[in-house]
Write a structure and sequence with these properties.
single chain, alpha/beta, Rossmann fold, Arc Repressor Mutant, subunit A, 2 domains, six-stranded parallel sheet, 10 helices
Length: 225
């Protein structure tokens, strides 16, 4: 492996950040180049230092880990974000992956497994904690099943498909409105129709349907505002 993997640790608990620094001191192939204690600080530090990998907590002040992950991935698509958290909630996993995270791991992971995970995402692999992977696959299957049912009932209009494709790429309502020259109210109304027709109740679920059906591709660099 050429050069060290440059790591940014983003967590609001100083003791946890110090513990991770101590772990990485034993690995010659990893260098901690910075720390952040809020989501907004994580974005700013990542913009300045351009680390290879960011270890990101979910529950962060200012911006949560999902929002910070989205912004970091937008600023530097080559940066790999690993969510490292105590939360097992499925919705966090789906939102984090949608935001661009390459891994979602729990804080009770063994230190050697964490180091191997960092090597893996640096190679371009994606990792989800084994205890969450099965539920993630179940969600994909459920969304796929709902999409198949929905497609036999009501097809999306071209305008709704345009909105859905941008949402699947990570665009918020304001960005969608700007991209399509629509009002934000119109975008919100089209999203409501999309949810109804696809039998889903969130943008993440709608995006998963679009990706699974091949209606949209999750680009490395989401649409810019």
């Amino acid at each position: 492996m050429a050069g060290k993997i440059r790591i940014l640790i983003a967590d609001d608990h100083r003791l946890f950040r110090q513990g991770l620094r101590h772990v990485f001191e034993t690995c010659e192939q990893i260098e901690v180049v910075g720390e952040a204690e809020t989501g907004r600080q994580a974005v700013m530090v990542a913009r300045r230092l351009r680390p290879d990998v960011v270890l990101m907590d979910i529950n962060m002040p200012d911006l949560d880990g999902v929002q910070a992950t989205h912004l970091i991935s937008e600023i530097n698509p080559a940066c790999r974000v690993i969510i490292l958290t105590m939360y097992r909630r499925d919705q966090y996993v789906f939102e984090a992956i949608k935001a661009g995270a390459r891994g979602y791991l729990l804080k009770d992971i063994d230190e050697h497994q964490l180091i191997e995970a960092i090597f893996a995402v640096q190679r371009g692999e994606a990792l989800v904690d084994p205890s969450l992977a099965a539920r993630l696959l179940d969600e994909f299957r459920r969304i796929s099943s709902q999409a198949n049912t929905a497609s036999s009932q009501e097809a999306l209009s071209e305008g709704e498909m345009q909105v859905l494709r941008l949402v699947a790429q990570g665009a918020d309502n304001k960005t969608v409105a700007e991209q399509l020259n629509l009002s934000e109210r119109t975008v919100a109304n089209r999203l409501s129709e999309i949810y109804r027709k696809l039998h889903v109740n969130s943008r993440t679920q709608a995006a998963l349907v679009a990706l699974r059906k091949g209606w949209a591709k999750l680009e490395e660099d989401p649409p810019k505002k």
